Amino acid sequence: MKKIHFKKPDIKGKIERLRHLSREDIKNNLKKRKERRQRILEERKNSAFSRKMAPVYKWMNIFSLPLHAVWAMVINLIIESISRHSVFAAWNYMVETPLVFLYNAFMIFVTFSIVYLFRRRVFVRILISVFWLMLGVVNGAMLLKRVTPFNAQDLKALTEGLSLFTNYFAVYELIIMAVGVVAVIIWVIAMWRRGGQYQGKMHRWLALAGVGICCGAYVVLTNLAVDHRVVSTYFGNIAFAYEDYGLPYCFSASLFNTGIDKPNGYSEETIDEINKDGTLTKSETSLKEGEMPNIIFVQLESFFDPTEVEFYQLSKDPIPFLRSLFNEYSTGYFKVPSVGAGTANTEFEVLTGMNMRYFGPGEYPFKTKLKTEVCESAATALSALGYGTHGIHNNGGNFYSRARVYNNTGFDTFTSKEFMNILQTTPNNWSKDDILVEHIMDALDYDEQQDFVFTISVQGHGDYPTEKVIENPEITVSGMEDEGKQNAWEYYVNQIYEMDQFARHLVEEVEKRDEPSVIVFYGDHLPTMGLEAKDLKSRYLYNTNYVIWDNIGLEKEDRNIPSYQIMADVFERLGIHSGTVFNYHQQRRQTEDYLKDLELLQYDILYGEQYVYDGNPPITEGHMRMGVKDVTLNNIVPQPGEENSYSLYGENMTRNSKIFVNGEQQESKFLNNTHVVLNDCALEDGDIITVIQMGSSSTVFATSQKYVYQNGTLTLAPEEEQDEPAKNWVEAFEGTSDEE
């Protein structure tokens, strides 16, 4: 076999030649490059492939517009077939709603108008086609694993979504996707080389005018489509909207239609009238000192009463404890803004009292607004009355940008999984919820005053495996013909059973404290199981369940309630009147223009002039710290028989504790919350050791104090050498990487 020899590049010689280049040399080089380019083009033009394709290109150029229209319809049918996982379903969509189908095809057609700006028209057509087809493939793949289709907000959560790929996709599926992407890239590159070029005279100004006309026609057509209800600007459920209005329109709507549009009639006078002489911005309570209870909200991932489903039978009740609470305490259906996904939007409604109806389709305010801007919430409302406020979540602090959002909504602390020693996980690798109990107790112990603790659970999270993964399930499911679906439901109800045990454990621990307390349990959305309204006793897909436990003698009041009203309702039962939006719900919930004025109020607070605050907003900057316990070090011991290896002993360490020596991260192995092994590190006297709690994408959430290594021992560095305390964790670690 002939050997391949690689010539060593003469980098130094090239640099010397570049230094001594004259203007004449540059002109000659440019001329040679141009001539070489012309030669290549002539060779491609006269190649056998080009001669063979020349008649095809000629007719394609002559009839390009009608061909674009036909191809746009074909692409639309293909991407809908992929998204709906059925050619027949896509065909029915086209036949039953032809105006919607043609509207989406016209959107695709408009994107093809830009090909006339380029000579490589075949290549540009291929790029545009690949874009639309890949959009369909991504959406189809996502809908295999979840209910929510692919939308623009997924792009804003791209990095955190990628970190969860292994939870949703098997290794072989990831390999197939990677091979597919590489194959498409190689094919596109090949078509750039072989696709040929338009040989006629280019009329780019005329082409640009044509693009403008197409775009203008699309805007006019969109307005007509909305006016005649062919499509809608409001998606009650984004999954249903994609089925009704098609992927191209829905994806573009989620991309460009965000925030709250300025409502008709918005003015300072209108907001003053709604505010009624400042009654909305007052903070007051009828409770006396010592009567104010701890308030704990627990958002249970994908929770609802499994006995609501009518197509299976369960071996026993999966929620015996919560059902006992249903019988004794205030309960009812809990109306949420999404189905199968959208945890952060239910969370947003509960925390702020704002209605998701007024935002863009598929929008997550956590990502579009609250990540970068402050906003009042239940935390600020209760802080005004002297409460300590704490967020807790047994998932990553960067997920849905919660760390930044909680800082911007007035929380004192936020404990994410980076500050937890999670030992038990589900077969899908989600943390089990019982870990939350000890951290809720730590939050209640953090300060002397009464506390508001907002807790987000994760154990019930999908995807739910269709194979049997629990060998001896506590609860079995029967009555279903599809074995895979039955396995998925069996997995789900057993996770719900353990979440019910977590609820019992939490109530027992709170009762032991002998403090006035209220706990609100509720589900954020239905599980990702393809449920239809006809499958449920309530005949409604947006219902989960809630219950309000207390030890202060609250009267049982059963009623169904939307998630954006629950906080105001609990406050009112407790005699608390604080928080602009919560006060509004309490005062206006039964009035005629309640929803209309709520939209005006939300716009004023988030996007308008904030007239309601009269220059005194309840929050102007965050002050939150991550975690409620500091990591400390107290001893270091050389590992027996191992060079440059040490055992570090301390307190409150987790798997996310990273050891730094003189500012550089070292290789380490976590053993338990008091013991970490430091490997391959030659320590010298005077070295500074710190422990950093690190989240995804190397985000620094918290750092320990500095410790000095001296004569084989650790001592706390002098106070003047410690870092100055910051106002909040964002300020302390400005410049560290975030998820996005």
Automatic annotation (TrEMBL):
* Record carries keyword Transmembrane: yes
Which InterPro entries does this UniProt record tie to the protein?
Alkaline_phosphatase_core_sf, OpgB/LTA_synthase_biosynth, Sulfatase_N
Which residues are in the Sulfatase N-terminal domain? 293-562
Gene3D superfamilies the record matches: Alkaline Phosphatase, subunit A
Q: Which Pfam families match?
A: Sulfatase (PF00884)
One CC-aspect GO term? plasma membrane
Its signal peptide is none
Q: Report the superkingdom from the record.
A: Bacteria
Protein name as annotated: Sulfatase N-terminal domain-containing protein
